[in-house]
Amino acid sequence: MLTLAIQKSGRLNEKTVQLLRECGIAFENGGSAKLKSKARNFPMQILYLRDDDIPECVADGIADAGIVGENVYLEKRRPLRIIERLGFARCRLSIAFPKDREYCGTDDLQGLNIATSYPNILRDFLKKNRIDATIHEISGSAEIAPGIGLADAIFDIVSTGSTLLSNGLREVETILRSEAVLVAGKKLSSTNQQLLDKLVFRMCAVQLAGNRKYILLNAPNEQIEAICRLLPGMKSPTIMPLSTEGWSSIHSVIAEDEFWEKIEALKAAGAQGILVIPIEKMIL
Ligand code: PRT
Ligand code: ZN
What's phi and psi for 17, nearest 5 deg? Predict the structure, then answer.
């Protein structure tokens, strides 16, 4: 049986649970399942932990795999491998200065006292850039450190930037971009490796579908070629004749991020009656 460690509550929990459910895994979340729960239709148990404990738990073999922020995975320095990047809980780890302190480049970090709960990642950055600064390790709320005279700058997670702004700080150097990742120990039993492969296969299908849309449209036959050039499809678009003479229905798959651009180009090429439908799973 595969053991997967996930965050018990917090910013990763909801999206992680949603992803597992979209992978077709039925399990109890919350309630009696505070510590662990067993999936009803997949040979897997889920451990609910604080995110900081996940890398260690996987490295020690208590769990075979875990879902955690890349920032925590990198900070904890455990011998794990990233199996899959999951595309949620995106954030950056950045150095921030009091808003009126000048910053022209990394040289301005020389000799500073920087507060952070990510000392390992910061130490690597300082070393790589030959910066001699003091790391002041704190366990949370780094953003208040400059205001109370505890540090000159901070190194912390930034998402929208509003926490920095409301503490009179500004982001001056982005050191890492992070997202949730699926990590696993160096070596799994062959049964558990197979189960993990199965889970990853499903996660990929869910992720792929998430940024794709199914598109159907009608077009006059003489425009089919021009329209097909805009619609690559999985292999190529499907073309079916309409009962109206000289017209066809074209079906394809497009990426979410090029959606509006494509729709405009398709309309300009003569497409009509365009339908765009979400895709639940996609397997290449
Ligand atoms: O209880 P547990 O230890 O499990 O959770 P936690 O409190 O340590 O972590 P949690 O749930 O806050 O975050 C889990 C993971 O989510 C982090 O390790 C990151 O990988 C990711 N993540 C994504 C974030 C944010 N976005 C984020 N904005 N983690 C924290 N923040 C903080 C940030 O530090 C700032 O103070 O949220 C605040 C608001 O950010 P702004 O920039 O939007 O204002
Ligand atoms: Zn934590």
Answer: -60, -40
91-178 has which fold?
D-Maltodextrin-Binding Protein; domain 2 (3.40.190)
Whole-angstrom distance, CA of residue 118 vs CA of residue 124: 10
pLDDT confidence of residue 32? 58
pTM value surpassing 0.85:
yes
Amino acid type, 169: L
What's the average model confidence in pLDDT over 120-133? 98
Q: Give yes or no for residue 207 CB within 6 A of ligand 1.
A: no
What residue spans define the domains of the chain?
2-87+179-209, 91-178, 212-278
- Does 50 contact ligand 1 (Cβ within 6 A)? yes
Q: For residue 68, which ligand has an atom nearest its CA?
A: 1
Who contacts 259 (Cβ-Cβ below 8 Å, separation ≥6)? 213, 276
**What is the rounded CA–CA span in Å between residue 62 and residue 65?**
9
The chain-wide mean pLDDT, for the chain, equals: 94
